[in-house]
Amino acid sequence: MKPLIPLVLGAVLAAGAQADLATDWARNQKTAVSKWQDRTTAFVAEMNRVCDARPEARIPAEHRRALLPAWYDLVEAWGVVASQEPAAIDELGFGYRVAFWPDSRGVVVRQMETHAVQRQTGQFESLQIAGHGIQGLDWMLSRSQPDCRLMRDWADHYPGYVDQIESAMPERMRLADQAVTLAANDLYAQASRLNQRLREVMNEPGGRYRPFMGDVSETGQSVRFIRAGLSDLGARLVLFSERLPDDRMRAPANEWRNTLVELADTLPDGWPEESDAAWDMIKRIRAANQGVETWLKNDVADAYSLLIGFNNQDGD
């Protein structure tokens, strides 16, 4: 086991670099959440514009397309926050409400279908929690004619959660002499979390194929989530390396950033229809994230006497 003692870290890592990293890390997460907040506001504004323009409750298919650019922007901004998973989200108890969650039992679909029927029959009372998050909106936008009433119900909840999270940021590093350790494990967990999003896609070539976003994205946004997370992980690796006490890790951090960004840029908007092609794409994503994990827990950990990849945020 690698030693992880604050006194040892204090001797290895300059206090100024620690404080700078803690400040930069908090600012980085604050920026990501603020962008998510802005994209949420923009989507709601576009939704209101589209829905206000017609008296009927449902959006015709030809007008549904007007919502998609704002929806894609929201998914990308949320994907960065979800892969970072700032502690403030869990501390506020909003993880279940604002995030995707495994839905292998079809909870979201069943509840949203129930909401739709209740709205049509005038029995609707309130939107249940399953409809508060992006997963609920994902279901609504997957309909050929989305229901403005349900989307307005969603908008009554979701922006408020995002505003509260933004107000609670930044989630500050606990102790300055632990900043590098915490940041390194944060990055390790982010790479691990992105790969966990792929676990339910397909067991093997030719096997079960089900795109994963929580468990399923009705509008096919899982690749967009992965793409945003990969690019953000690459940027944060470079930020992390620049706050280390020497420049030994800057070149490899930049190489990993380039690898992740290039991979993200080559990913299509959705999963390939052919299962072997989808499996090949999954393997490339996994290999990149696992490479980052290995670099962090071996090279970075050895260079600075850190314990990385043990008891991280996902419990691996």
TrEMBL record:
Annotated signal peptide: 1-19
Annotated Gene3D superfamilies: M75 peptidase, HXXE motif
Superkingdom of origin: Bacteria
Matching Pfam families: Peptidase_M75 (PF09375)
Imelysin-like domain: residues covered: 33-205
Principal subcellular localisation of the protein: other
GO cellular component: cell envelope
Compartments (UniProt record): Cell envelope
InterPro entries xrefs: Imelysin-like, Imelysin_sf
Keywords (A to Z) from UniProt: Signal
Keyword Signal (UniProt): yes
The protein, known as: Imelysin-like domain-containing protein
Provenance organism: Saccharospirillum salsuginis
